[in-house]
Amino acid sequence: GQNIDQPTEMTATEGAIVQINCTYQTSGFNGLFWYQQHAGEAPTFLSYNVLDGLEEKGRFSSFLSRSKGYSYLLLKELQMKDSASYLCAVMDSNYQLIWGAGTKLIIKP
Amino acid sequence: GAVVSQHPSWVICKSGTSVKIECRSLDFQATTMFWYRQFPKQSLMLMATSNEGSKATYEQGVEKDKFLINHASLTLSTLTVTSAHPEDSSFYICSASSPASGYNEQFFGPGTRLTVL
Fold it and tell me: Is the dihedral angle over the CA atoms B60, B10, B18, B68 positive or is it negative?
C-alpha cells in the first residue's frame, strides 16, 4: 500500500529552527510537495522536490532523498505566524497526490 | 496567477437538502480538478478527480450518487452534496491543475465549510 508518515505535532520556539520529517512508500514517484495549512484555511504551496538534494526558498528549505524515501522541511528564524499544519504529499506514478496526515507546528514565544 | 475560487465559503443547511459548491479557476484553464474533504484535525481526503468533459473518477468509499460532480468547462467544476446529513458536515476543498504547470502542481481553492443541521 501507499503510505506517508510525518510526526503528528511539534513544538518550537520563536526565532529557532525546526525540521519536519516525512517518509514515504508509494507506487512510483513524480515529486514530493510540502504545503502549509492554517486552521480553517486551504493548503498553500511551499515547495516541490523531484531530484535529490536541498531546495532553499527564503526561510524555508526542503530536502529529498529518493533512495531513502525521505524528505524534510526546514524552517528557520521561526515566527509566530508559522504556527500551522505542514502537509507532505507525494505524487505517485498516476500523478495522484498521496497525502500525509500533517504535522501541527506550535510556535512558542 | 493560478488563482482558484470557491463559492460559497460557508453554508449551513438542513438535513435532507442539497448543497452545490462551485470551484472556478480564475486565470488559467484547469484540465483536471480535484475535490477533497477534510474533517477536523485530519488530513485531506481525496473524494474524486474530474477532467473537463468527462465523468469524474471517485475514490473508494465515496458515493457518486451522493456527491455529484460536474466539470462542464475548463474553468468550472461543481460538487453537489445531495440529501445532506450531519455526518456530511466538513471542510470541502477543490484544487485545479493545469498543463502549464511544469510539475502538475495543484492550486487550491479557499475551501467551503459545510454544516448540516
Answer: negative
